[in-house]
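General statements about sequence and structure are easier to judge against a single worked case. When preparing material for the folding task, we compiled for one chain both its residues and its backbone structure tokens. The amino acid sequence and the backbone structure tokens for this protein are reproduced below:
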Amino acid sequence: MTTGFSSNSCRFADYFVICGLDTESGLEPDELSALCQYIEATKFRDGARGLASADEGENFEQSPLRRTFKSKVLAHYPENVEWSPFDQDAVGMLCMPKGLAFRTQADTREPQFHSFIITREDGSRTYGFALTFYEEVTSKQICSAMQTLYHMHNAEQYDILHTPTTPRCPEDQRHLHPHPLNPHPQHTLLPTPSISRLQRFNSYDISRDTLYVSKCICLIAPMAFPQACRKVLQQLHQAVSSPQPPPLPLESYVYNILYEVPLPPAGRSLKFSGVYGPVVCQRPSTAELPLFDFPISQVFELLGVENVLQLFTCALLEIQILLYSQHYQRLMTVAESITALMFPFQWQHVYVPILPASLLHFLDAPVPYLMGLHSNGEGDRTKLELPQELDVREDASSNKDLKVQCDEEELKMHQLNIQVREVFANRFTQMFADYEVFVIQPSQDKESWFSNRDQMQNFDKASFLSDQPEPYLPFLSRFLETQMFASFIDSKILCHDDEDKEHTLRVFDSRVDKIRMLNVRTPTLRTSMYQTCTNIDEAEKAIEMRVVKIDHTALHPHLLDMKIGQGRYEHGFFPRLQSDVLSTGPVSNKWAKRSAPAQWRRKDRQKQHAEHLYLDNDQREKYIQEARNLGTTIRQPKLSNLSPSVIAQTNWKFVEGLLKECRNKTKRMLVEKMGREAVELGHGEVSITGVEENTLIASLCDLLERIWSHGLQVKQGKSALWSHLLHYQESKEKTDAAPAGLGPPGLIHDIERRKSDAGAALAPLKVSLIRDMRHIQNIGEIKTDVGKARAWVRLSMEKKLLSRHLKKLLSDHELTKKLYKRYAFLRCDDEKEQFLYHLLSFNAVDYFCFTNVFTTIMIPYHVLVIPSKKLGGSMFTANPWVCVSGELAETGVLQVPKHTQEITFECQNLGKLTTVQMGHDNSGLYAKWLVEYVMVRNEITGHAYKFPCGRWLGKGVDDGSLERVLVGELVTPNSENEDRMCRTPPMQQSPGMMRRFVTISPNSKPKLNTSQIQEGVGEAINGIVKHFHKPEKERGSLTLLLCGEYGLVWALEQVFQHGFKSPRLFKNVFIWDFLEKSQVYFESAEQREVTPDENWQTRVRHFCRFMRAINSTSRNIGKDGKFQMLVCLGARDHLLHHWIALLADCPITVQMYEDTALIKDRSLVNSLIRVLQTLQEFNITLEASLVKGIGI
């Protein structure tokens, strides 16, 4: 929201306003304000309750002195000014937000000062400064009306206390039902008092009491100078309350402040005269931080440093903020201080620091807002409620402090303000010192860019975040998604040169340039340590110089051309002023000529407008104001229009804005996800985890919460979505059968007895919203409703059921009607269907946003082993076992019942599954097992993984292995065809299915030529290199690149198979046989001391040590498994290129390979060695499943 000022205003103040009681219209109850107070009180008493009728608005149980009556604008001077039309409704409500207040001589009647903001529909702001005091009521009609109200009130109370149902026993009194209109049900009703006792308590007697009513005088100004305006108003009030009259009529002082006191331009100070003393104000220059004249120290005194920072963080992340206090000026001070500390960013959403009681319904807006709500004297707990409860200390200062402040105290306030603001601004300058290089400038013209603004990215967030220190990421990843940051970048794109920049952007860019020139921070140097602010001394001196040396002294108040007798007033009463002398300013330049320094007004006027207003260029203002997700008319309610039709229209814009935001978010998330998946990142590895995805999902969760919060009857709990889900669960669990429990955590707790030939596929999981809710409720780590709602959204997205679940939830129309008002988004059928349709698009991609986030929870898994049907799998007699490994952990050995081949177990989240180790104990008569594949499913997310095998497990068959390591891939959930695989993302699989038996025999010679083999090795190495060049959070499993299809193990197998001599008939020869013979040769050569050099000896010792360790392992792995283990260990210790060189020169190679073999071609071997050497710079960490049992 652009915080501009009236472009044509060069006066310090535009209007002087008087608000109060209109004796002609009498006492008029403020029904809207009273109704809102009544509803607020009854919510605490009986929870969800239907809306009260308008008749209940007056609340006759409330004492008449405490009721709400309408105030009116009695007069304002001048009638109107061209550049700032007078908004009577807004001014009236904000001058006296809770209407008129009555007091007697027994009550305190100290004057109270407060300021307020009126935000127009174009985003420009006008500031108001009001002093509220009490005047004696002289109208006999008003006093008689108040007396009559008290008689009615006492009679009402007497009837209530004398009803026949009133319990007499004290024990029964605590069960007494309160009166439906009683706003304080916690007060126990005592036995019936007498009428005289009622009249003596909090009463008004016209014969002995003096009645006072509140009145307000106010200045409306284009800029915020609260300290100066407070002094002016206090001196005006003192003039009518002091025994001695002022030197001049009141009209002279009001005329002076309206017409003869100019608005100081940037970098200047101004001194003018009040009724009894001088008033000084000063305005920062164009190189300084924007104008701020509120005492920021009061905010820290009220909340404390830690709580201020929490509130500041909530504002930066655009969380709904509601301030709650007895004092209007506290609300304004806190709100203005928080937004001032945001420099160079600006709050872009609803901003109403003082919300009139009649506009309480604006709190239901489903958009970020910063509002302040006044509390009653009885209920003000003087604390702010943020995402966490924060204790707030009482303000140590009294109202008397507001009356008198010497110049020295005001100077200290300005100095402390600038010190704190400079520290915050310095931090932002350091964090965004190189933001310009990440701004994405549009390639098309401005009109095209503007029309497609919602679909375009204006900032390279991923690159910017990748350069930031780790401690910054949690905050920055969310902050970059806010509207205030997007608007800041929009302003940067729209400005062509320095003259076009907004004031805040120009100041910030100059600081960025300065910090670069001083080499305090550069784009290549980042640190999370705070760097001292160097601007504080300079900023303090600038303020001190302006206060010490006043640039201009305005004209003194003087007598006006008034008739004799005009200007007189009665002591103690602020009169209506003479409108004829205050309606227009001076016609001639008579008084201006007396002060030559006044010429700086004309000289600096154009510069002042260019620096602060920027409202003349319609085209530029259009870009700034319209390039938002929601229009300004949606974000900023107009206070002067309260008709039901306008409220309904505004609410409809809320609904349309939410739907548009949903469409934009889903589109962006899909483009981000699918765009990455379309790029092949190393053999199909497309694991997408990290800051950007989590940020987008968190933003989607925020949107869902705002949608579910719109139009609630009564808000229950912190999460509206989870509250709705709980209501749905409660209503359905009585009729729906609850799913079977998973049992207590343990290793193996549920074994389904099912024969292997009964079916090869896993039984599909039942789709159940309630079941998914219970999964979340069973997670002990999630303790808040907001956390549970977000976990449920993440789980639903991962299962591709978010749209389906929400559609099921909203299909209970009776529940929705019970929880939501008619205008709620969830009760707009067309928009709701479009919303669910947009969410349905998430089913096109795979998310692991639940699995990757909740890494410590217990998850049940189901394992199903599928043996070969053709080769007598049912005759298998040994005892099988499995060990499942994932990116986060592994299970350990789990025994599988031999006759069922399936098991369900529970363990800590394994992450995305990578390998399954399986084997058996070789017991029984028939211990040979041909396994087709293994299926493993996460019973919470429903993700099923298929681990192909196609190999024998048993002695004397295949390669003699009793255990194997299988690499799997994700399959589509609930697929009827087991062979149908999910291609999003295409994960690697075990190479066993492709090569079936990795042996060297006449019937199974490799068909690849040397160039194809070289290409395969290069692709395998390239995949590993890409893996390590990606951010750590975006890396997939390295096991897939080593042992998966077309991985490094497969590539080196092709190298050693090429040109292998044909073995004898019916005998399989494996690569491991060649390696063992080479080991024997090397060991014998070393014993004979036939060694070329010391390097050769070192390489031989390493090779033989690894061969011995693998052969001596207790694991029953076959020859192919041993070769895989050797390659993985060699890659880990960067020895593969040494071993290739050894084997190429070994005499055993001559015996076992043809002359055309790749291993015997010196140039090809040297090329292979160079490629393998590229792995030396990477620290390769192997999964435990690959090197289990090896002690090196």
User: Anything to note?
Assistant: The mean pLDDT is 75. The longest helix spans residues 644-677. The CA atoms of residues 761 and 977 lie 8 Å apart. The longest strand covers residues 125-136.
